[in-house]
Amino acid sequence: MSFMRIAITGSSGLIGTALVRSLRSEGHPPADAGAPTTTQAVGSGGGHDVVRLVRRSPQGPDEVAWDPLRQYVDTAGLAGCEAVVHLAGASIGDRYPTKAYKKRLWDSRVLGTAAIAEAVASLDAPPQVLVSASAVGFYGDTGDRPVDESGPPGDGFMAELCQAWEEAAAPAQEAGIRTVFIRTGLVVSGEGGALGRRMLPLFKLGLGGRLGDGHQYWSFIALHDEVAAIRHILGTPELAGPVNCTSPEPVTNREVTAALGRAVHRPTPFPVPAPVLRLALREVSEEILGNKRVLPRRLLESGFSFAYPTIDGALRAALR
User: Fold this and answer.
1) How far apart are CA 149 and CA 199, in angstroms?
2) pLDDT tens across 142-171, in order?
3) Could you list the residue range(s) of the whole structural domain that residue 166 is in?
4) Model confidence, pTM
């Protein structure tokens, strides 16, 4: 990937922080993501010019103001950007899913994406590519049937949100900008995300266990591979539309539980019954209890190689 000026939203989040670090450090993967012991560049080249979109007053020449809810972007700060990576959005699962919080989830994604898409489409010299976050929730509950990017949208709140989220990028697509929707699964990292923030601390205390019957498939990706995949997408002009950012080896919750226990050398004796999860999390519980057996067909066909395709490898990398 040749030198680029790249604007990033959500740069203070789990993926955004690691991506900024990687782009600015000549392609080195994030330390948390467990860099392989052999030399494996995340993309080629490096030392990219990264512009961070922030929701406060900019504090330096590398920051640009934006307000996703007001749908405002300081477009002057995007001048000269060859690429935009849009990762911003309120975190799913951070709070009890009230009607107000579900609206926040919706607005932060749909309004934010619309703002970015309209901003890049309005530029006299628009970027070559917009990489916009999405999620495997697009597919709904897939059962034990594997699905790839050709799969239809599913049902439920998260599936509807993901559809609206992607549709909000229409202005960029209509302007002829290559637009890629990265449908990401559970990001495995020791620094944050659902696993690093909630599951790992419990498992380290010996309080972990399967969720529901544990037979539901979870599609995961190591943070290292997520960053590498985004860099690969930026440098692969033939990739447009949906791209699943998930490991090629999805696993069941029971297998994740066992792998976590092995990784932290603790027993996993405390299952959480499905009725308790449904009562506590309502619609969001289906993201935990439902099946997401999602495969990264387009990444693999485009020549991308996963450093950590297995859950054991991803967890070992996260815990380094």
Assistant:
1) 28
2) 988 999 999 999 998 899 999 999 999 999
3) 5-187+223-247+291-307
4) 0.89
